[in-house]
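Bench notes, afternoon.
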Amino acid sequence: MIIVLWLAVSILCAFVAAQKNRNAFVWFLIAIFLTPILALLALCAVPDVDVVAGVAAEPVRDVTPSDRPSPYMQALMNRG
């Protein structure tokens, strides 16, 4: 029973790591070899990778065909 609980919390730790854009497999191994509760506490203490890198977590804008091509692309298209 304890082994099942240990694995379940380790998988939860990997899921939380993936949500924070961290390596889920590494955090799963940390939880397996250390205690899963300590790994979860450490994971909660570290910020998201996007926050550390200074990257805003914004969705990428969809590019539609109505967007104008760059001047370089226009020159390539007019060449042929």
